[in-house]
UniProtKB/TrEMBL annotation:
PANTHER family: ABC TRANSPORTER ATP-BINDING PROTEIN, TAURINE IMPORT ATP-BINDING PROTEIN-RELATED. The keyword Nucleotide-binding applies. GO terms for molecular function: ATP binding; ATP hydrolysis activity. Residues 12-234 form the ABC transporter domain. It holds the Pfam family ABC_tran. Belongs to the ABC transporter superfamily. The keyword Membrane applies. InterPro entries: AAA+_ATPase, ABC_transporter-like_ATP-bd, ABC_transporter-like_CS, ABC_transporter_ATP-bind, P-loop_NTPase. This is ABC transporter, ATP-binding protein. Keywords: ATP-binding, Cell membrane, Membrane, Nucleotide-binding, Transport. It comes from the Bacteria.
Length: 259
């Protein structure tokens, strides 16, 4: 399945993309890059470097102020934010199946696919609860399930796990990778966590602010869609983390020197 997914997946091209707010200096300044079909991208950088702004533009949620963002064809996409955007007055199953309902899928099929997804998420038995009656990790699973239930081709994630403690964050990363085996998707994710970028980014875009610039677009040599339990603590994994850390620290000291 992943092979056909890659063959069919849409590719993304950015040419000289500039993004700014008002008359301020650009947040993203003439960024050019390409992402092949099916490749997953992690965007990492310090707070305020423009990660969320860039993600929104890639998702078509905001216009560009210069240059071009082009998908090879129209894509079906879905988004997960840090705030999750679950509907507090809707029960778990209703939240989960909302994308199917709004797409006009018949009710019986919505319920059937919703129950299948609940099982994949490990949330069986919780379908009648409201989001407020779930733990943080369960809410996060629900948001991931809702994002994938309508089988999007591209999944945009903006720091979805940043409010979680380190171990729960790792569990949710595993849940995400597990879900993607059954629901293949091209994932574009923003994170400020270097290890998360190295785990989840087949390509990693490293950004700096002030001045806004690209520090690197790395082809991640340790990326795997199916990491072993030892993967995160392997020397090779740490080596890529160190490389990104050095890029970010180098940019910080250059910025400090310029002040
Ligand atoms: N609506 C807005 N109006 C004006 N400036 C904004 C707006 N949204 C973001 N900015 C500014 O644009 C810059 C980039 O913001 P953005 O949220 O894209 O960064 P980020 O890298 O995602 O940050 P963080 O990791 O803190 O979420 C910041 O300096 C921010 O203050």
């Amino acid at each position: 399945m992943p092979d056909t997914h890659h063959a069919r997946a849409p590719s993304l091209t950015l040419r000289d993309v500039t993004l700014r707010y008002g008359a301020d200096a650009p947040v993203i300044d003439r960024l050019s890059m390409e992402l092949a079909g099916g490749e997953s991208l992690a965007i990492v950088g310090a707070s305020g470097c423009g990660k969320s702004t860039l993600l929104s533009a890639m998702a078509g949620l905001r216009p560009v102020d210069g240059g071009v963002i082009e998908w090879s064809r129209p894509v079906r996409s879905s988004f997960v934010w840090q705030q999750l955007a679950l509907f507090p007055w809707k029960r778990v199953l209703e939240n989960l199946t909302l994308p199917l309902v709004t797409a006009g899928v018949p009710k019986a099929e919505c319920v059937e696919r919703g129950r299948e997804m609940l099982a994949e998420l490990g949330l069986e038995g919780l379908e009648k609860r409201f989001p407020a009656e779930l733990s943080g990790g369960q809410r996060q699973r629900l948001a991931l399930g809702r994002a994938l239930i309508a089988e999007p081709e591209v999944l945009f994630l903006d720091e979805p796990f940043s409010a979680l403690d380190a171990l729960l964050r790792e569990r949710l990363q595993d849940v995400l990778l597990g879900l993607e085996k059954r629901h293949p998707v091209e994932r574009i994710m923003v994170t400020h966590d270097i290890a998360e970028a190295v785990l989840l980014g087949e390509r990693i875009l490293v950004l700096a602010a002030k001045p806004s610039r690209v520090l690197g677009l790395i082809r991640n040599p340790v990326y795997t869609p199916d990491p072993s339990p030892e993967h995160r603590t392997s020397e090779a994994f740490y080596a890529v983390c160190r490389e990104i850390h050095a890029l970010l620290r180098g940019a910080e000291s250059a910025e400090g020197g310029a002040r």
